[in-house]
Amino acid sequence: MENREEKNNENNNIKVLGWVAFFGGLSQDMIVPILPTFYTQILGLSKEMVGLIEGSVTTVVSIMRIISGIISDKVGKRKSIVFIGYLLSAIGRVLLPLTNGAAMAFGLRLIDGIGKGTKDAPRDALVAKSSKMKSMGFSFGFQRMLDTLGSFLGPLITAGLMILFANYMDSIRYRLIFLIAGLVAFITIILIGLFVVEQKGERVSSSFKLDLSIFKGKFLLFFIVMLVFTLGNSSDAFLILRARSVGVKESTIPIIIAMFNLSYALLSVPSGVLSDRIGRVNVIRLGWIIYAVTYLGFALAKLPWHIWALYLIYGVYYSTTEGVAKSLVAHIVDESNRGTAFGLYNASMGLLAIPASFIAGYLWDNVSPAAPFYFGAICSLVAVILITLFRIEEN
Fold first, then answer.
1. Which of 29, 204, 377, 381 has its CA 20 to 30 A from that of 115?
2. What is the Cα–Cα distance from 72 to 8, expressed in whole angstroms?
3. DSSP label at 42?
4. Calpha distance 353→235 (Å, rounded)
């Protein structure tokens, strides 16, 4: 009876955490499309200040991913830390309508960033703990599917609300949307608090030092390969710039991105299931090859329809790598270190995006607009070769 109850709790956790990711992504992507305009036109902030605020948020997210991962491993608890993370994000968002200047905007966005970074690693570890090893690809694919569906619907809902509130002053209209997005974020708190069940975990120690012993064996090899790949994986803002450079209208770009998110969402579960059947490394390798082909396509693109087709394929790449890579991490590290591993993995990918985007910008300005995409394709193919040579087999 007890085993059946534990199994039901595990299955329930996978489902509930998926919907938590959905509402979290929905709330975030209701805000993101209009936040830059709110900064500049409503608050009157300079571009430098906007860059400082959002750059700081990115950095804080990466740092908190590592810290929260370590803490969740040391105390053997996941749910409570995930709850705190989502609560902080919800508070940061629901108070955003009260923002009246740079200082308050900075503070609230940092609270949101701290929350986002806090919940990521322990949530991934909780998903892994709640999943059977043989179906972990499906579990992480399910998370990515619902998370991305939220990201797909968020901008569309915001667009609808902008039309609905068209008769309001811009300041009021933006603040109303922020308030609605903040209230949506609190749905995650209710779901976690009432329906997520903590999985028993082993407390490692009372010391909260970073255990560098995790950098060994298969995780170290995979970490190195991911760093190589990520060096060529610049910000998706360059894809938008490339789309504009070949004649895609600015008004159609949100539609293209929505199509990309839908493609990504619909294929996440099938890709996860495929990884359970043929192996996670094989699916990741396939995803990186698709990435290389897509980036070569962006380098050679000449017409707007090329961009539409490439974004559709780009969604296939995301579906075969994002959730599957996390599933692989869960397989190649000990359960007691999963929080730390996920924190290091997520944070390093975020931090390396900074030099990757700098390199892409340099190549764009000093070589050609196509150069960043050739570089990305090369890095991806090198990563394919390395992951093949390293023979990173799953436990």
1. 204
2. 23
3. I
4. 7
375: closest CA among 358, 388, 387, 350? 358
Structure tokens that stand for 20 in this block: 């938590």
Task: Take residue 29 and report the two structure tokens written for it.
Answer: 């992507």
- pLDDT of 192 over the 90 cut: yes
**What pTM value is reported for the model?**
0.80
Q: Which amino acid, 360?
A: A
The one-letter amino acid at 238:
F
Whether residue 211 contacts residue 337, with contact meaning beta carbons closer than 8 Å, is answered with yes
The CB-side HSE value for 272 (13 A sphere, CA atoms) comes to: 24
Q: Which two tokens stand for residue 306?
A: 């090329």
DSSP letter string, 160-171: HHHHHTTTS-HH
Does residue 132 sit in helix, strand or coil? coil
- In angstroms, the CA 339 to CA 335 distance is 8
- Our CA dihedral for 359, 364, 369, 370, rounded to 10 degrees, sits at -30
Structure letter (DSSP) for residue 7: H
107, 141 contact by CB (below 8 A): no
Per-residue pLDDT tens over the stretch 51-104: 788 878 878 888 898 889 889 888 878 999 999 999 999 999 999 999 999 999
Residue with tokens 């709330």: 27
Q: Tell me the three state secondary structure of residue 38.
A: helix
